[in-house]
UniProtKB/TrEMBL annotation:
Protein name per its UniProtKB record: Protein YIPF
GO cellular component: Golgi membrane
Residue intervals passing through the bilayer: 117-140, 160-180, 201-219, 225-247, 254-277
Source species: Orycteropus afer afer
InterPro entries noted in UniProt: Yip1_dom, Yip5/YIPF1/YIPF2
Membrane topology: Multi-pass membrane protein
Organism placement in taxonomy: Eukaryota, Metazoa, Chordata, Craniata, Vertebrata
Amino acid sequence: MAAADELTFQEFEEATDLLAKTPDAATTRSDQLTPQGHVAVAMGSDESYGAEEETEESDKAMLLQGEKQQPGFWTFAYYQSFFDVDTSQVLDRIKGSLLPWPSHSFVRHRLRNRPDLYGPFWICATLAFVLAITGNLTLVLAQRRDPSIHYSPQFHKVTVASITIYCYAWLVPLALWGFLQWRKGIRERMGPYTFLETVCIYGYSLFVFIPTVVLWLIPVPWLQWLFGVLALALSAAGLVLALWPVIREDTRPAAAMLLSTVVLLHSLLALGCKLYFFQPLPLEHMASLPQATSLPPATLLPSTLPRAITTS
C-alpha cells in the first residue's frame, strides 16, 4: 500500500515539474487507468484550443457560403442558368424535335428537367429573319422573271415576323401552362410541366419551319404547299407527343379539346406565314402601254372627192 502511494506521489511530482516548465499545460485524470496505471496528462495551450475553434468556425462559414441563395427572378443571374447549355445539348434537343418518337418523351429524355432558353430564343430569331429575307427574295426573283413587277425593300416584314413568332412562342405556352395548372386542381393525378419546359417544347418545335421557309423560294405553288404540310405535320406531332404524358390523365373531352386547340393554333401560324410572306405578287405597272391618240371630234377632214370636170 505504501509502495502504491509512493508511486502516485512520484507521478504527481512529475506532473508538477512538467506544469512548471509549461504553465499553460492542462492535466486531466481519466476514470479508467492506463495499462501502466499512470495518470494521463494532457498538454495543450489556449492558443491551440482557440485555433481549433477558429477552424470549426471557418468550416461552418465555408459550408454556408457553399449553400448559395437562389437569386430573384428579376436579376440577371437567375436567367443566366437557363442559357448554360453546350452545343451538343442543343443539337440533341433539335434532333428530338425533328424526330418525335412515341416511346421517347421529349421532356424526360431530351430536357432531363433542365430546360433552356438559349435554343428557343435563337430558333425564334432565326425563323423571323429567314421569313423576312425569303419574303423579300421572292419579290426580287419575281421581278427578274417579269420586269413589270416593281420591287421595293419591305423592312417592316422583319418587325411583323419577330412580333408574331415571339408572341406565339411565349403567349401560347403561357396560356397552356395556366390551363394545365387549373386542371391540376381538378385532376390531382395530373403533373403539368413547368412554364419554362412548356416554352422549351414550343421553341424547339419551330425549328422545322426554318428549312421549310427556305424551300418556299422554289416558285412552284403545289411544291410549296407540300413542304408546308409536311413541316406542319412533323412539328404538330412533336408537340402532341411531348404534351400527351400530362394531358392523358385528364378526361377525354378535355384532352381532345386541348390537343385540337394546340394543333389548330400551330396550323394558323404556318398558314399565316405562308399567305403573308409568300402572298401572290401584285403586278404594278410603272408605265402605261402607249396608246394611239385620236384627233378631236370637231376637226374636219378636207374633202378628197374629185371635182367633176365638164367639157364644153
